[in-house]
Protein 1
Amino acid sequence: MSKKRIAVLGIILEANVFAPVTRRVDFENYQLLQGEELRAVVGYLGLSDVGDWEIVPILVTAAESGGPLDHDDYLSFIDDIEQRLREAGPVDGVFIYGHGAGRTTALDDMDGDYFARVRAIVGPQIPIVAELDLHANLSDEMVAAADILVGYRTNPHVDQVARAKECAEHLQRLLLGEKATVAYQRLPLVTAQVAQLTAPDKPYGELMVYAEELMEREEVANVTLLSGFSFGDTPYNGFAICVTTWDDQDAATSLCDDLAQKAWGMRQRFVASPNTIADAVELEKAAAANGAAAPRVYADIADNPGGGGRGNTIHLLKAFAEAGIRNVMAGVYFDPALVERAVEAGEGATFDAVFNAEEQNALSGKWATPVRVDHLFEGQFVGKAEINEGMNVRLGPSAVLSVNDGEVKIVVCTLRHQVLSPEYFEVAGLDVRTANAVIVKSRGHFRAAFEPIADTSQVHEVDGPGLTTADISSIEWTSLPRPVYPIDPVEHWQTASVARSTVVAA
Ligand SMILES: [Zn+2]
């Protein structure tokens, strides 16, 4: 018997509608896997450990979170995918290594669009299983096009590999002819980005524990709980629940309703009130005065490149520098023009820097200050931390600039990136363990690798101006379904799970 042939593909973009357009080159600079390179990643994901399959590598590509993908560039990826799928000949199954919060400049549901295109090519009988980020905005099209959707269960996201294996196990059963039945619904609930951690003592963690208990039932294939990505600003936004059972529609529907009730009951716990920049300065002053455990970590959550932030707002950094905070390491700041100036000046030189001299986004702010060029380097490494293990990280030509006689050291780079681990400083020759205060351009994913070296009580979220601010009521939403908690009062809500068959038939 010949081996089953499984096609693997995916376009991964968490699109922040308020951020500048993302282009094909942003994917090429981040991750674009085809052919043997993709086959190697599939090996790492462990798909072939589950079934003795022939992997048909199509294309998997990802960019750092940013604005909607230029639609022509999107179509260029689609051309690649469609052509390779057709050239590959008949396949027995498809694994989509996806995200679920993509937009293009013309589509508010990029993922639903390419899922449907793949379905159209392989036909209705071929199983499609898709892995989604926990921040996916669940659309009806995505549910209709895939047999089973499997969302990450962790935030910070450290279970991509486990979920890929889970997808493979589902695929195996679908290939044997079992039938997946699905119920899903979206709640009128936008959870604060910083209230989405899945530690067991957090509300999301509690829901996950419950979901995992349900998944032990024989009839339940998967329970997916998606926080959604609010800055996508789509009609599919909102906390979403998707339950897949093995040929048991009633179970899927009742469990989905049950989970929706539970999540809605917890809605007040999904609201967050992070520190202001002034709070952070006071916190650090007090910590330094009291000799608190170091390093103290300050997450610049309003400017998280992992959520489409520009990675260059200077408000928190400038406040620390102006307050005379000592022994600070800050990174990674996206400012290609500033790196160029530093390279011209050379290592050891001082010059009058202007941060964000060429940035268009007013929220980024500008900052003129004398700096010293401590170090120039090519920012490239292969990640070793659990969150980015094996990932080829490219920051491009980069510099360490210091201000206040070396008390504040700033890592500046030319390719925008969220900080996922201390490695983003190590590549610059900086050891964050020796800092008093570390400012990270990240919302929460840094936690997985920073919390082993920084006491959790010394990790602080700081809000301010930026494309990923926690102050969601300040944003001019256009497509977010209203009313939505906590922006609006939601007087009447009742659970309303949708069975997938209803959608397909419609
Ligand atoms: Zn995510």
Note: Residues 133-135, 157 surround zinc ion (CB under 6 Å).
Protein 2
Amino acid sequence: MQSPKLPAKEEVKYKYYAGFSNTFVQDVLERFSTSATRVLDPWNGSGATTSVCAHLGIQSVGADINPAMLPVAWARLARSDLVLKLCKHLAAQRSSHLFSASHLGAQENDLLSSFFDSKSAANLRILRAYLIDAANVHAAGLDSNELAALSGAAFIVLSEVLREALRPLRGTNPSWFSRPRHKEQLVQLDRAELHSLLLRAVAGLEASSKSAPNARPDHFQWPDLRVCDSRQNLANLGKFNLAITSPPYCTRIDYAVATIPEQLALGELDEIGFLALRREIMGSVVTEKHSSGPPEVSPTSLLGRTLTAIQNHPTKAAGTYYSRYFSKYFDDLLRSISQLTSVIENGHIAVVVQSSYFKDVKIDLSGIVTEAMLAKGLTLSSSRAHFAKSSIAWSNPKFKLYRSSNVDTEDVLVFATSPITQRGLQ
Ligand SMILES: C[S@@+](CC[C@H](N)C(=O)[O-])C[C@H]1O[C@@H](n2cnc3c(N)ncnc32)[C@H](O)[C@@H]1O
């Protein structure tokens, strides 16, 4: 089985920190798909699963709770000749045209004002409106899917501009942006600076699109991409016979904060909406003091023992905040696994997981996911470990106090609903 790691040479329009590689998805499809396959990724992120399925002519559905991941997954499907045309158009625009009054960006209560001073936020709104228009300029003759994909490419440009613009608020952890607390900390950028960030983002997109093939294969199948919560709504998506997916890891990556540039580019959420997303998204560091408590599991199970070890750990806040955090994460994961297993019929679920540590307590995500899948009546048909560095979110120079290595494995687990159909495993 191929490693899920993103190889440096694999050209993707959006280098998502948690994405897995196209070759990994291809490998799983080769081993487990049949002509009748309908594929699901309930944590679709930047959409590796749906993009590979589309190019192979396989029907797929990609769901993600984060609305900002939708245009990212669409962008992966954009035709490269159209993207290159869009890049050429954007690169040719003078700053005075980009910021002309005809592209007024409305919506004053979006999140931009929380990060940028009022002038910069206003300019970014104009740029956002301009980029939406720019995709439409090339829309003649395109069907709605093709337009959504091209708009996704314009969205990637804007997200890149915003990611760079937010650089002063980034620390060593690439998935975190700090919040300005005072007016003086708001980011300020003039139009010339924004224009040069735009040109850089366009050049980046152009470079990654040049090597991509122009023509679509005849069998190309647009995926169904949607916002959906894996903990409760998967039944609405119908039945599937294969899932290729990777849940949010238990490494305190706050996926809502990590995608702040994309949230700003989308402009849909205000502060209240953003906080709601932060509460709901799995793996979130936001926990409620009066949460529902730990999931109901036997104290002798792997998950039960892990939660007890965290609860009883001598470190500060282990019995309070950290217990709440891990209880919520695993409650969300078990609910999602219950949903996922109910929509896969006569097929397989391929899951990529990475284990992690809380101090010296190993969070054996691979073992815990296996335990949950077996409890749902599935069988483990293949398991393969690939070495990976421990997540940056937990990486702390003091890790040596607790363990000798900061390297762990990323595991590829394949489960079968009965009957088991093992084909050329390992
Ligand atoms: C590890 S990433 C998946 C990466 C993906 N395999 C790729 O190639 O980009 C996990 C994804 O799960 C999403 N997510 C978190 N909580 C969710 C939920 N309750 N329902 C659906 N998606 C969720 C996050 O927004 C994130 O995009």
Note: The chain has two domains: 22-66+224-416, 80-210.
